[in-house]
Amino acid sequence: MDVMRKLLSILFALMVVSCGGSPQKMIEAEDGAAVSVLENPYPLNYPSTNPKPNKVVYSLKPGESVLVLDEWADKDFKVYKVQYSSGKDSGYVIYGKNIRERDIHG
Question: Nearest 5°: CA angle at 50, between 94 and 71?
């Protein structure tokens, strides 16, 4: 099942590239660590003094990749807007030590 999910995410990225889209990057959960995809573009329990509502909508399994739709950084963290579930849904990943960036060359 995990292999199928990984193959679908790679296939989706290749289809977008071959159709003239221009995704430049994918991110992958490194081996041995899951990565949370969040509903909103900020970390859970942020800010610590008065946390904004947020929740995990998907969990990337180790080795699983997702397509990066956009990325930006503010003074406290870097955020990726990603597409998961074979391109049906999007969410946000906060940059951290368990994430590996991979360029897509079309």
Answer: 20
List beta partners, residue 49: none
Kindly report whether the peptide bond that precedes residue 53 is cis, defined as omega within 30 degrees of 0.
no
At 17-33, the pLDDT tens digits run: 444 455 489 999 998 88
Q: What is the pTM assigned to this prediction?
A: 0.74
Reading the block at residue 24, the tokens are 């430049």
Q: Which residues pair with 70 in a beta bridge?
A: 81
Q: Are 2 and 34 in contact (CB under 8 A)?
A: no
Distance CA 98, CA 87 (A): 22
62 and 95 Cβ atoms separated by less than 8 Å: no
What's the rounded Cα separation, in Å, for the pair 98 and 75? 20
For 2-103, CATH gives 2.30.30.40
